[in-house]
Every structure is written in structure tokens, then in C-alpha cells.
Specification:
Elements lengths: L2 H4 L10 E5 L2 E4 L5 E3 L3 E8 L6 E6 L8 E2 L2 E3 L6 H13 L2 E17 L2 E16 L8 E7 L1 H4 L7 H12 L6
Parallel strand pairs: 4-9
Antiparallel strand pairs: 1-2, 2-3, 4-7, 5-6, 5-10, 8-9
The chain binds zinc ion.
Keywords: Hydrolase
GO biological process, one term: DNA-templated transcription
GO molecular function, one term: hydrolase activity
């Protein structure tokens, strides 16, 4: 079920919501318009000195146990760089530097039966300080040879598209 189908009541007054379009709900009581638009996330692809790619194992749903790249949802007021640095610090306790933005990939984040539209902003980055350590939301991490990455169960289709582009140097999904 898409998120827009899951929402029944106005977040402002509690009145019933009516679906006006594929991304707009309107309250029948107070006329409040509630837009269901994508939530941006900030994630990074990190390589080590052997040209291997860092992946993390997801500790929580959705896609618990699948491989993912480190990152997470942006918070209000954050820039991409601030969000990416915060997420990687929270998950792996290392500091990073963004080298360049790879792209913005539409995706769905399934949570408790509702598919949330999201937009994965993904950059290439390098670790500048700290020792990798499993801290939050992940149960493990590992560097993989580029030839092995796409054989793995990758958590999100957008992340898989970004990894495919990164490894093949071909833009197809951006
Ligand atoms: Zn209302």
C-alpha cells in the first residue's frame, strides 16, 4: 500500500482526508492540504585503498539483513553534507569527506505496510578519520570487490542503481 492510501485522518484537526491526486490529500473538515511527497535521504559510497566498496548490513526493517550503503533520512534544515556526515558518524563512528554527488534516485521505503516515497541522494565519499565500528541501525560492515557487489542482496532498488552506475561508470538511472 502506498503511504497516501494509508493516511486516513487530517494531521492538523483529525478530520477525514480525501484523496485529490496521486500525491495530495485534503481534509474534508478544515480544507488543510497534505502533500505526500518524497523524503530525501543522504547516503555515500566509500572505497578503500584496494578499490573495494563499503557496504553495511541492515539491522532493522525494511530489508533487515540485506546489504546497503551507509546513510539515512535527512533532518529538517540539514544540508546534504551535514546529513551524510551525521548519519555515517551515527552508524559507523567515522568522519567522512564528500568527493562528489553521484545522483538522486527515486525509491520506496516500506514501513509497517505502507510504502513511503523517498529520494536517495548518493555521493562518493572517503573516510578522513576514525576506526569503523558498528554503532547504530547496522549489524555489520564489509568491503566488497566491485565485481561482487551486484551479486549481493542490496536493500533498495535506488541504491542498487547507484552502485551499478558507480561500478560501470555509466549513467542510466540518475
Ligand atoms: Zn483538518
Amino acid at each position: 500500500m502506498y503511504l497516501i492510501e494509508a493516511y486516513k485522518f487530517c494531521p492538523k484537526c483529525g478530520g477525514a482526508l480525501e484523496k485529490k491526486s496521486h500525491n495530495l490529500l485534503q481534509c474534508l473538515q478544515c480544507s488543510y492540504e497534505f502533500w505526500v511527497n518524497p523524503s530525501p535521504s543522504a547516503s555515500v559510497i566509500i572505497e578503500n585503498d584496494q578499490n573495494e566498496v563499503l557496504l553495511v548490513k541492515r539491522a532493522v526493517p525494511p530489508h533487515q539483513g540485506a546489504w546497503d550503503i551507509p546513510g539515512g533520512f535527512m533532518e529538517p534544515g540539514e544540508s546534504f553534507i551535514q546529513a551524510a556526515k551525521r548519519e555515517i558518524r551515527e552508524e559507523l563512528e567515522v568522519e567522512i569527506e564528500i568527493t562528489h554527488l553521484l545522483g538522486a534516485y527515486p525509491d520506496l521505503y516500506s514501513y509497517k505496510g505502507a510504502n513511503n516515497p523517498c529520494l536517495s541522494l548518493i555521493a562518493a565519499a572517503k573516510i578522513t578519520s576514525g576506526e569503523l565500528k558498528v554503532a547504530d541501525d547496522v549489524s555489520g560492515y564489509r568491503y566488497f570487490a566491485k565485481s561482487k557487489v551486484l551479486e549481493l542482496q542490496i536493500a533498495f532498488t535506488g541504491v542498487r542503481a547507484a552502485l551499478r552506475e558507480y561500478i560501470s561508470h555509466e549513467k542510466t538511472a540518475f
